Amino acid sequence: MSLAERLERLGTETAFAVSLAAAEWGAKGNRIFPFHLGDLNIATSQNIVDAMNKAIADGKTGYCPAAGIPQLREALAEDVGSRRGLQFAPSNVVVQPGGKPVITKFIQAVMNPGDEVLYPNPGYPIYESQIEYFGGVAKAYRYLPSKTGFDIDIDQVKSLITPKTKAIIYNDLQNPIGAESTDAEREAIAELAIRHNLWVLSDEAYFEMRYSGKSKSIASLPGMQERTVILYTFSKKFAMTGWRLGASIAPTDISNQIAKLNTNDESCTTHFVQYGGVEGIRGDQSAIPVMLNTLRDRRDVAVNMLNAMPGISVHSPEAAFYLFPDVTGAMENKGISDLAEFAEQALHATGVSFCTRRHFGRPQTNESRQYIRFAFSGINKDEIAEGLELFGNWVAKG
After folding, report:
1. pLDDT tens across 73-93, in order?
2. What percent of the chain has pLDDT over 90?
């Protein structure tokens, strides 16, 4: 018996493949320094855990509304709106089992087979996977190295838009490269969306995971709220990656369709987990700055050590928890031309495990530099220093 042909178009989150390779190496008795997966080794705040446990004790273990419990939708509408200078109603909010389902349901709601959707590359690999799985044409736009990290190639974005273009996926505070848009860049994307009447998925998973400054949403720009779906997740800000809790915040007409997709896909997001989300937004948030300080310290150690290595350079991002070092010179010094081989040799020689640029979308033409991604969210500062000392010594040997 044959399986559905569309499965051949379905990708995966390739960081998990790196996790498997690291686990296999570790199972042989080798020390692993896990820089590969953007998970947090920081516990969820106790007040959130207590709120969930109370909900279970109170019997909140059955079905609930497909769009989410009213208390959470109201809390999200107020919190997301106030932080972005916008007004949202609970009807604009649809609760999800994580942030990732927002990508899938956005694409299902706005894209027909054959439609084109623009997405960032390098970027979160699920964008590309879901566009192609549902029969769309995935058109990648690139980033260019700059003095502050990376900038979207706006000219390329303009060149990619055709009458078949239906939407653009925009990930400010970006995974994997840690890029943050300038006001001018954000405004340029908004202007193109308005001019060509495009839907926008604004992936704001790291909106409040920042070490200085203040985040801005493309939805806050004139003419954008009515065409933008915001992806919100509890995973990062509240250290709730395994809880699987997120939401879409969108115009009511598309929210109604996303809620219908909820009914078809999973009936509802886990009932009692949503009460943990309410407590996260409404309750004590004193653990958040502590977590950010911890992550900032990890970032600083990693950035300083990487920039001291021969043939490696990396900028220090103001948000999220990813570094995207340029390792072109290091690879040349080692006599290695293939990124996968570079990563494998590094793992076996030092125990340092990381993703490469090739885990975040198909490389585009004319890419001349080689990059890897370090996540510093799931590894302690002392381990970062120990692992990168080994990695640096290996790199320096040439």
Report:
1. 999 999 999 999 999 999 999
2. 88
Cα 305–chain centre separation: 25
CA 51 to chain centre: 26
Question: Which of 71, 73, 69 lies closest to 91, judged by CA?
Answer: 73
Element spanning 143, H or E:
strand 143-146
Q: How far apart are CA 60 and CA 355, in angstroms?
A: 40
Q: Which residues belong to CATH 3.90.1150.10 in the chain?
A: 5-43+287-396
**Domain formed by 63-282, architecture:** 3-Layer(aba) Sandwich (3.40)
Query: What is the 3-state secondary structure of 231-245?
Result: EEECCCCCCCHHHCC
Q: pLDDT tens for residues 161-218?
A: 999 999 999 999 999 999 999 999 999 999 999 999 999 999 999 999 999 999 999 9
**At the top level of CATH, which class does the domain 5-43+287-396 belong to?**
alpha beta
Q: Which of 366, 367, 323, 359 is nearest to 342 (CA)?
A: 359
Confidence of residue 117 (pLDDT cuts 50, 70, 90): very high
- State how beta strands 246-249 and 322-323 pair: unpaired
CA distance 101 to 266: 11
Spatial neighbors of 124 by CB under 8 A, at least 6 apart, are 103, 171, 175, 176, 203, 360
Q: At what angle do helices 70-84 and 271-282 cross, to 10 degrees?
A: 40
- Separation between Cα atoms, residue 195 and residue 376, nearest integer Å: 39
CA 318 to chain centre: 15
Instruction: Report the DSSP beta bridge partners of residue 96.
Output: 246
**With the C-alpha atoms ordered 199, 200, 201, 207, is the resulting torsion angle positive or negative?**
negative
